[in-house]
Amino acid sequence: MAKKMAVLSLALLLSGVPAYLIAAQDDHSHHHHHHPATGSEVSTENPLIDEMMKLDEVFHEIVSGVALGDGQRVHAALETMHGTMEKTHEGVDAGTVKLKKNAKRLKEFVKMDKDFHRNLEKLAHASHSNDHKKMVLLTKKVLDGCVSCHQTFRP
Ligand code: HEC
After folding, report:
1. Given this model, what pLDDT does residue 20 score?
2. With contact defined as beta carbons under 8 Å apart, do 138 and 126 qualify?
3. Which fold has domain 47-153?
4. Distance 51 CA to ligand 1 centre (A)
5. Domain extent listing, the chain
6. pLDDT tens-digit map of 50-76
7. At what angle do helices 106-128 and 132-153 cross, to 10 degrees?
């Protein structure tokens, strides 16, 4: 049995499949260097995806903070969001943000995002004054914001 396995892995080694995979990986890493020199720290080509990745992380923190009645934790999480919406809206203007669903309803998308961030702003204030009741209400509103925007614009 062990001998059979050894023969099999030797066969795989000689088959050229690993070489192909390595070549493909190489290609992939090269691709990342073709980045326009924007001077900003973008992790993907699409500021909307960057915003969503950040938002996802931050919202987990918010949920924990609100559940534990820890306004400081909520406030600290929200502070790291600064500037991400602006980058998304710049991307909308520059054409680097391309909606994959209902792409023609861009104005509606921008309005939804602004309303959403206005609620985040209110949540920041509520958490700053440790108003737990308001924090709970606004966190629910924010979640509604994620869901309704995804229903319309997430493929
Ligand atoms: C104003 C619109 C809008 C709001 C608000 C919004 N999203 Fe998104 N989100 C999108 C769109 C559009 C996509 C799909 C992007 C794509 O694939 O091009 C997306 C994608 C994502 C993704 C990427 C993973 C995937 O499977 O698509 C995550 C994670 C995510 N959103 C989390 C959140 C969370 C958490 C919230 C709320 C706290 C939120 N989003 C609020 C529009 C929004």
Report:
1. 42
2. yes
3. Four Helix Bundle (Hemerythrin (Met), subunit A) (1.20.120)
4. 8
5. 2-31, 47-153
6. 999 999 999 999 999 999 999 999 999
7. 160
